Fold each of these.
Amino acid sequence: MPRFFASHENISENEILLIGQDAYHIARSLRMAVGESITVCDMQSHIYECTLTDISDTEVIAEVVSVSDSDTEPRSFIKLYQAIPKGDKLETVIQKSIECGACEIIPFASERCIAKIDKKDAPKKAQRHNKIAESASKQSGRGIIPVVREAMSFGEAIEDASRSELFIFCYEGDGTVSIKDILKENQGAKSISVMIGAEGGFSLKEVEKAREKNAKLAGLGKRILRCETAPTFALSCIVYETEL
């Protein structure tokens, strides 16, 4: 069944209003008719099963048939901090991470990033990234649309990540503990931050800063993972330990 997101002000007790691109998509791309069913999420983990009652290219009205809580959101609020990779890899990371349960994604610049932050382009990139996030949320049946924030510095990212109940710093060097053991020792954490490096990994200076912020240095197994693979792997481990 087609899934859409609506802002709270467009949802009443009995009806939901969909406007703009969503309305056009229903009317033109999907060619739906009055009487057909859609699913609408309010971005607060509530699911509305609806029947279409009025359709035009600019707005669609749907009657609410039933309301339930979303069962697709992870038990912990998971924030992914991804060092900016080359090319369009970040777009893949955003898509797959949302499918795996990330609730917020924060790109950041580390010492070994080849790609750099362009302050002028940052709002435009964030807008594109959030469109990808919305599409991935619809496709994977999420109850919210995770936010992709504008890129920040390593210092800003590590300070932000340290506020979570559990801060996992993924690292392939010495002094790590397996992510499996870290998760078992921290069962019940309501907020989890996961930090992933770029193609060249993290510098020793950055690793020391992570230790200073009480990060758990986590190994991701015996093999070296690409920067676009590591977040999917780490998030899958978290979901396995907390949900399955």
Amino acid sequence: MCGIAGAFGTTNIKKLNILQTLDLMKNRGPDFSDYYDNKFKKNYVYLLHSRLSIIDLNKRSNQPFRINNYIITFNGEIYNYRELKKILIEKKIKLKTNSDTEVLLWLYIIYEEKCLDLLEGMWSFAIYNNKTNQMFLARDRFGEKPLLYSNIDGNFIFGSEVKFIKSLSKKNYQINNNKINNFLLYGYKQLSKDSSTFFKNIKSLPSGHYIKISSKKFEIKRYWKVNSNINLKISLNEALEETKKLLNDSINLRLRSDVPITFCLSGGVDSAILASHTAKRLGYKINTYSIIDNDSRYDESKNIKKIVNDIGCNYKLVHLDKKNFLGNLKTTIEYHESPTASIAQYLHCCLMKKISDDNFKVTISGTAADEIFSGYYEHFLLHFHNLKDDKIKSNREISIWKKKILPNIRNKFFRNANLYLRNSNFRDHVYDGYKKNSFFLK
């Protein structure tokens, strides 16, 4: 989690503003911070970076990083940088570092925006060419790394956080009341439906998009979207073997780090698989961290202890401090300068704080596994809809669902096995309760 920020436009930003911004950015990158500035005719350019050292801890990899006319500020990690380095070596390019940053910049120099097709990882970065006076910014395919920006009166300012943009611009951005009302009305599920933020004139670059900017041009373009190519002829065993291979390859790539790695362990299937595979199949000695709730309905400590005993790892149980809930919540909101999306985000922040306090820089979690592997109650109902033409199989699986799953479901919509069979376009559950909530926002 490095910090990046910068500006491109007609405003000459004072050095004091830059230094104040770098000071704010240290929370994201405490290991090193610096900036690049340039004037091209009437245009001013600034690139700021605060480093959290993960790959190649040597100072030679500090940022902003420069190769000839190209300068980069980069947050994230290119997991397949070792494989991509081979492309550069074949082109007789002599690398000066062991970092993914240098590999990324060289790939952009060679392929420009097409380099994004080669990358496996998470990223937000800005690259400036001081010969052509052009800047290129990009965000990873799933929006794992933040990239916020403001583009007003010929001045483009970007950053990992809203506060960086405020600090560089010294503008008083007004609160986006419409965004707040929509959040109160529809909940967290609408937060990423567009590029707006909780501040007017500050936007979030959508995942899978890039920006090209010069003194005469500003362009946003989507470079990637999901390609769902489903093979219905594959057997169950073939699917299982391919899943194992993909999981193994994915974990192996993400274990590339020059600092120790820890794992989040919830007690559920997803995080347990990641930790277990790493410890038992790949032979790593790992550390795990788990949130423990004293409420018996949400206490998964028994599952967690079974897992850690099985894989023989070091572990820490982080007990929730409910007495200071409001204080911690306020701190989280003030840091992100936005409402907390859900209680899950709050819990995640508590867990990350403990991990950071113990000086771990890299954490692997099972986030999004439920979406990928159909782990939510709604997915059963979608599956029943897909089986609607096979009555025998449909009845058998619904019968099993009623016995094994239904007793655990509280949501009134998901207790109905025929929900999508009766109406395949049903979507009232997405913004559950918004009609009642609208009464309070009139």
